[in-house]
Design goal:
Helix content is about 0%, strand content about 55%. The chain contains no helices and 11 strands. The chain has strands spanning about 1-5, 10, 15-25, 30-40, 45-50, 55-60, 65-70, 75-80, 90-100, 105-115, 120-124. The strands form 2 sheets. Strands 2, 4, 5, 6, 9, 10 and 11 form a 7-stranded mixed beta sheet that branches. It has a 4-stranded antiparallel beta sheet with strand order 1-3-8-7, with no helix packed on it.
């Protein structure tokens, strides 16, 4: 089972990044997908999740209107499009799969696997 996030980098405030999450070794479309982040000295925070069936998604308030989560089951991929980035978005971003994505505050229930993270740094 592998889950690998990529696409992070250094960007100026107001810029955009698209994170990708590549899944292998399991049936990807059986699972909901989530994105979480962890900034230095802070606890891991759930950012977004997307359901496996109807594609409904949930976002933490701080990213609503700026981030968009999506998935392509045919490619075993999930994405997090991040626009209007802010310095406070700086963190290591992780993708996670689990049994259920619930909201309104995004949460992945029944976590199956965490992926390795990718660093996002937003300069002011």
């Amino acid at each position: 089972v592998q889950l690998q996030a990529s696409g992070g980098g250094l960007v100026q405030a107001g810029g955009s990044l698209r994170l990708s999450c590549a899944a292998s070794g399991f049936t990807f479309d059986d699972y909901a997908v989530g994105w979480s982040r962890q900034a230095p000295g802070k606890e891991r925070e759930a950012v977004s999740c997307i359901r496996r069936s109807d594609g409904n998604a949930f976002y933490v308030d701080s990213v609503k209107g700026r981030f968009t989560v999506s998935r392509d089951n045919a490619k075993n991929m999930a994405y997090l499009q991040m626009n209007s980035l802010r310095p406070e978005d700086t963190a290591v971003y992780f993708c996670v799969v689990g049994n259920r994505c619930s909201g309104p505050t995004p949460i992945i229930q029944g976590v199956y696997h965490w992926g390795k993270g990718t660093q996002v740094t937003v300069s002011s």
